[in-house]
User: Fold this.
Amino acid sequence: MATWKALGHPLLPDLLLPDANGWIPLYSAAQWIALKGGLEPAFDPSTIESQVIWKQAFGELCDAITRGTVRARGYFSGETRDLPPNLMSRKAVSYPFRDMDVDLFEGSQMFLQSTYFNDDDDWNSGMTDTLWQGEKPIWTHIEVFEIDVRTRWPVESWGRVAKPTGRPPKRKVPIFAELDRLTATGVPIEPTIALAERVTAILNADLFARDPVSLRVVQMNIAAYLKVRAKGTE
Assistant:
């Protein structure tokens, strides 16, 4: 398995803000907590010391999911489903930017492997937060509800309000969720330009009216969605 250095990510990804009415990757929520909403400086995720920061952040996040104050969902058996809160209780965690603990793979207990979120291409290629049972991925693409994250960990709770600096944060386009919704209504999901245009229009009329998502991004997501769904039926 390639390490984060080989993948060319020596520093943390841009902070993804929980400022919309949608879902963000579990990792991004943990980074939000670790950096206190941007009030803390970015740390070097390659150091042993960084694991203390991740342990606290993931501990708070998993505890909130277990208690039901933060809603979570993931991809299970070929479809997006609500994640049962108890699955996040007292889980061993393989933290991001570190080599996988081989003992976790060889064990029988379910554990969480967190992978940093950099952009939609990484997400669609399978670099997601995943619950494993031994060597078998059980839940993939785990994400949490933005409103719950921002309610539980508002920037103001850490003291002062941070002013945005640098590049705007990357966003995660919820195309998989929209494709799940269309599937549930009987719409066939096929790699056609007509479907891509339909999904693009739906997203840009609501969630991304101010910053439209491109047709090309939607087409890539449809292809990834069909690939993930095919794996789920194998």
Residues 190 and 222 are 8 Å apart (CA to CA). The first strand starts at residue 23 and ends at 25. Residues 50-67 form the longest helix (18 residues). Residues 1-9, 161-171 have pLDDT under 50 and may be disordered.
